[in-house]
Amino acid sequence: MEAPEMRTDQPDLWGGGIAYERYMGRWSRKVAPLFTDWLGAPSGESWIDIGCGTGVLTSAVLKSCDPSRVVAIDSSAAFLQTAQSQLNDPRASFRQADAQAIPADDNTFDVAVSGLVLNFLPDKAAAAREMVRMVRPGGVVALYVWDYAGHMQIMRTFFDVAIALDPKAREFDDGVKAPICRPDPLAELFEHSGVADVEVRKIDITTAFDGFDDYWTPFLGGTGSAPKYCMSLDERAREQLRQAICNRLPKGPDGEILLAARAWAIKGRVTDHKPS
């Protein structure tokens, strides 16, 4: 689904919504249905989507999980506006809130999920505890994150080239900044948060680009770590980076680019004895 047209004189909305859709939203849309299928939640469950962004995961839940309701929260008003504009479903409601301190009662939901958000939260343990707190005993908590340090070729190609040209680019690299995005740290986080029957799996997708411009243009949007680094450069350095990445990427006979992307997904069951 393409993001709707919106006024470009709203910079926060443009940067928060449309730029993200072009940069990562279109790939998350391929991961989200695989994630919800893996959860296998029964019909009629009450869900909360934490850090809903532009509504990718909320949309997948509504389409394939037959929920009784989905509460979608995000700290960004711009993302929420984009999500609401795309999802016209009476089962969905949207709230602006911090993922680390959610205004919801204990034991309110059957399922708490989060997509591609955990690594951006300063207190990841607090966020996990919030997920557990809001889910009834026996309910499910689950999330997924990009494998930034490994099989996320869109970003790995960008940062491997950028760091070779400029070691300061490492300060923006989520492969370095987000060690939580690996199976063992994810499992440890859940187990310490009072989650039982923890399972971790990889979700692999292909990311196909029509040509180099299709790959490169989203890095000029300023939303996300790689685009922020890219737009921090002067024009000469940015052009040098562009040419180096173009030379590195594999191309088909018509200039098409086919890369791989991996997400790590984790799920578990909330126990009767939640941590305080």
Automatic annotation (TrEMBL):
Database matches in InterPro entries: Methyltransf_11 (IPR013216), SAM-dependent_MTases_sf (IPR029063)
Cross-referenced CDD domains: AdoMet_MTases
UniProtKB keywords: Methyltransferase, Transferase
Signal peptide: none
UniProt GO molecular function: S-adenosylmethionine-dependent methyltransferase activity
Pfam families from the UniProt entry: Methyltransf_11
Single biological process term from Gene Ontology: methylation
Domain named Methyltransferase type: residues: 48-142
Protein name: Methyltransferase type 11
